[in-house]
Amino acid sequence: MLQQALAERLLPPLLIMNDRQPCTRDSWPKRRQELLRRLETHIYGVTPPAPDDVESQLLRQDDHDLADKAITRQILLRFATPRGGFSFPYHLFLPKSDRPSPLIVHIAFRPSIPDRYMPVEEIIDNGFALAFFDYQDVAPDLHNGDFSQGLGACYLDAAARPDNAWGRIGQWAFAASRVLDDLLTMPEIDRSRVSVAGHSRLGKTALWCAAQDERFSSVIANNSGFAGAALASRGHGEKVSDFIRCGSSDWFCPRFTSYLGRENELPFDQHDVLALIAPRRICVGSAALDVGADPPSEFLSCLAASDVYRLLGRSGLITPDRFPEPGTVLHEGEIGYHLRPGSHYFSRTDWLAYLAYLRRHEHKN
Predict the structure, then answer these.
(1) Which helix (H) or strand (E) holds 176?
(2) Which of 109, 198, 255, 340 could bridge 163 with an S-S bond, Cβ 3.0-4.6 Å?
(3) 356 part of a folded domain
(4) What does the DSSP 8-state code read for residue 325?
(5) What confidence tens digit (pLDDT) does each residue in 49-77 have?
């Protein structure tokens, strides 16, 4: 049943090299680079090299936060760019523990603590450290093609963006990697268990971040939809026209808009992004009423990417041969998936599912 549904999507093949040779385990690193180039060229744009150095400044620390369960810090990051220095703040919550803690880097919609999309105390109570930054502090989500502010202005000539210039998703992802640069210097963090997480457009961002930055051991993509976890070809969710209509096509490279009305002709699809994270862990969450994010296409994307996991000796998504019903949780494989009732939201139900998934896999290599 599921393989037939997947075959009907007519996806670009994951495991055929550009020279038409079958991809093997030995040739996967080369194939991985081919997929990265494909996604840079057609959807996300090219990410500039990481800066040579990231400086951090402690702005504030509370040693007795959350009923004395956590240490919290506000930290300002600075790094050089081709057009001068750039800085932005992030927050860190560390559970009081006698050993390094697993960490989640949350690309967040607001600087609020706690936030309606981020139950900080429950995350700490589950033994996880949490770092987060407000995406607007990195690249304002202006919806008008204006790159004269934020990180984009440090790298782009806003009046002449090439077809493969990075968009805001690439810039937010770049910032998450700079937060990780700083966090990996801290002895309180378990370097082997660092996740990046996001919801909606920031779920798309988390996936692209982890696809590029192999230091992240896992990624959490909540309701990420089109250009996130969901397959675009023959899907029933958002289309390129929706991003153009809303003024959000500048999340992507300029070439992305050339696929207006041509989603079934894309030379890539989102199983490519998930495959780039293999053999690391992915947990995708869908909401049954989130029509725009197209839950069946998110689920099938996880299934399609599993071919690469199996090539590399991992399990990918483990599921019965049927589409999931609301309330389904599939956490056995390296690709986890859940479908909850309700609509587009980053709920406590989602967070608790992701935490359970990460704990289940914490002792795996």
Answers:
(1) helix 168-183
(2) 255
(3) yes
(4) P
(5) 999 999 999 999 999 999 999 999 999 99
Q: How far apart, in whole angstroms, are the C-alpha atoms of residue 240 and residue 226?
A: 9
CATH at 101 = 3.40.50.1820
Greatest Cα pair distance, the chain, in angstroms, is: 59
User: Does any domain span residue 365?
Assistant: no
pLDDT digits (tens, 9 = 90+) for 15-53: 999 999 999 999 999 999 999 999 999 999 999 999 999
DSSP secondary structure letters along 208-241: HHHHH-TT-SEEEEES--BTTTB--TT-SS--HH
C-alpha distances in angstroms, 325 versus 184, 220, 224, 319, 320?
39, 20, 19, 12, 11
Distance CA 344, CA 355 (A): 19
Contact predicate 309/335, CB 8 Å:
yes
Range of the domain at 266: 2-360
Contact 333, 308 (CB under 8 A): no
Determine the length of the chain.
Answer: 365
Whose tokens are 């020279």? That residue is 19
Provide the domain count of the chain.
Answer: 1
